[in-house]
Design brief:
Largest sheet: 4 strands, mixed
Oligomer: single chain
Order of helices and strands: EEEHEH
Helix content: 10-25%
Shape: globular
Distance between the termini: 37 Å
Structural class: alpha+beta
CATH topology: Aminopeptidase
Radius of gyration: 18 Å
Number of helices: 2
Number of strands: 4
Length: 103
Amino acid sequence: MVFLAEASGEVVSAAWLEINPDTDFAGLWGGSTLPAWRGRGIYKALVFARAQVAATRGVKYLQVDASADSEPILPRLGFRAITTTTPFVWTPAAGGASPGAAF
C-alpha cells in the first residue's frame, strides 16, 4: 500500500506498507518527504498511519529499515531497535562473474 501526504494538490511525502500475508509481520518501506516539507511531522504522521492500518489488520510486528534521518523519529512512536543492517554495494568484475563464482 502506498500512503501519500499532499499539500495544495502536490504530493509532498510518500511511504509504503507491505503486509506479509499469513504472518504476523509487515514492513514499512520507503518514506520520502520533499526537502521543503521536512521537519513538519509529515513522515511521523505517515509512520503512525501505516502502523495503525497494520494493527487493524492483525499485524503484530513491524520491520523498518530506517535511514539516519528517520531513525530518531521511530523511538518516539514506540519502536525499539532490535538489530541493524549493513548495506553493501557489489560491483561485478569486468567480464561478468566475480572471481571464485561457481555456476
